[in-house]
Amino acid sequence: MIKSLLIANRGEIACRVIRTARSLGIRTVAVYSDADAQALHVREADEAVHIGPAPTRESYLVGERIIAAAKASGAEAIHPGYGFLSENAEFAQAVMDAGIVWVGPNPSSITAMGLKDAAKKLMADAGVPVTPGYMGEDQSPGLLADEAGKIGYPVLIKAVAGGGGKGMRLVESEEDFADALASCKREAAASFGNDHVLIEKYIASPRHIEVQVFGDKHGNAVHLFERDCSLQRRHQKVIEEAPAPGMDAATREALCAAAVRAAKAVDYVGAGTIEFIADGSGKLAADKIWFMEMNTRLQVEHPVTEEITGVDLVEWQLRVASGEPLPMSQEDLTIDGWAMEARLYAEDPAKGFLPSIGKLELLQFGEAEGGRIDTGVYEGAEVSPHYDPMIAKVIAWGDDRDEARERLGEMLQDSAVWPVKTNASFLVKALQHPDFAAGKVDTGLIGRDGEAMGEPPVPSDDVLQAAADALVPVTDMAGFRLNAAPRRAAWFLLDGEKVEIALTSEGSEEPATGVLVTEQGQAWLLTPWRHDAAHGAADGSGAIVAPMPGKVIAVEVEKGDVVAKGQKLLTLEAMKMEHTLTAPFDGTVAELNASAGAQVQVDALLVKIEESE
């Protein structure tokens, strides 16, 4: 067994590898960029080596620096994680040439499966069913159009070097083919430096089913059953599960046997995934499932396979890389229960899933029996604009699919992150969608019904009332209104928006200055109402305070300026929106504590206006 390991990655997967390595008594070395100096994977490793500036092309994608870090730290082996350099055959070869153990497949296997057209030809020769299509060298537009016609519309144009949904176009008719081809080639050239494409039959109700395979250096290869990753948004996986809904024993046996043949065809060593596309318009059948591509690395969604098999796939990777045979034979591997994984991202579904960056001032993960959290962040850490905004992988196991689904929903609903926005509510609504709940899911489900899933949640009245009661001081005049019946209600700011909330108690002897409201996997800040973006200060003091954490992007006044009621004072950017703060009355700028570009916290005094006499 290797004694020391460098993880050529960051975030969640780096922490995941460190966890298993530590359990095996292996010394771990992390690498980090300027932006990751305080990252969780750096804190958890036995040693950490700085490799460059924040941009990935200057740090995590520079193979020479990673190899140099391994040599300097005395690491015997390098684990690439997923993404970055994990499927780079040249890097793998350079690691091996440097006398360092590569925890991954042989470079020749990566190369063989790296281009979609060559991989499909290789799989067809190995007896693996492939989607009907054209994978030839002739890339002339006329010939490609002719081949599309022979296949029959609709067709998919796919960059042979593509991935992640880039370099892919759906073409419904012959008239649209030329424009789609030109667009696809441009995107492929810009993204991958290779504009070659293949054409394949488009499956109207596609399901994305993949098989986990594993090989060792002694010629052994096994499968660890299938995963279903059909719930996707713009070709990006959202929720994954194992096993696949509707998979019978005969179809599973045929599919997994094909996956093992695929692995053996390239003498595969280590963890890999054979991805298939299935016709989901009816019952799953072996003759309606075709090879799509192979991922020559550990997948993001590997935990669901671990949960149903009891296997630590990272441990297998390290043992195989050390020269050991596979720890289990095919006959020893069985499926136990059901598992689901959701990717909790720092993004705002209400604003087109834009990344939401900033400090994780609150980070709370829900718990459930059979639950698991894989994360690369901690409360107080920063969500950086430089990298993938994943906060955690939330995983749940159950005896059956409904139990796993319900437990996952429970964990997501009990999670809370603030002030960074997340997709937790979106994930919960996806889990609750009638088709998904029934196991009737294809890759187009979110495209059809995703708008409703992305609607921003609203905290319940009960939760708001409990929070509001904690903000209101006890007073004998509570609820009093001149010439009217008493009414217990007050105005507050909920994430900067003015709301009226009914009060259910006499208030608090020691009222809080703010309360974080958490529900449905979301968090909101509730504060006493002082002003809103349209009316400036509301308490008569002339104090203009920040309604939420944010960045000052413009200051329109200077200290000593005479201002009129309603005059624009400054603009605050918070939660991807601009908030204009205005003068509450005619007066003079007595204090100015803000400058353009400054980051401010909630309730920070920005401007003080003294009323004109």
Automatic annotation (TrEMBL):
This is Acetyl/propionyl/methylcrotonyl-CoA carboxylase subunit alpha. The keyword Transmembrane helix does not apply. The keyword DNA-binding does not apply. Residues 535-610 form the Lipoyl-binding domain. Gene3D superfamilies: 2.40.50.100, ATP-grasp fold, B domain (3.30.470.20). Keywords: ATP-binding, Biotin, Ligase, Nucleotide-binding. The lineage of its organism: Bacteria, Pseudomonadati, Pseudomonadota, Alphaproteobacteria, Sphingomonadales. Residues 1-451 form the Biotin carboxylation domain. Its cofactor is biotin. Coiled coil: none annotated. SUPFAM superfamilies: Glutathione synthetase ATP-binding domain-like, PreATP-grasp domain, Rudiment single hybrid motif, Single hybrid motif.
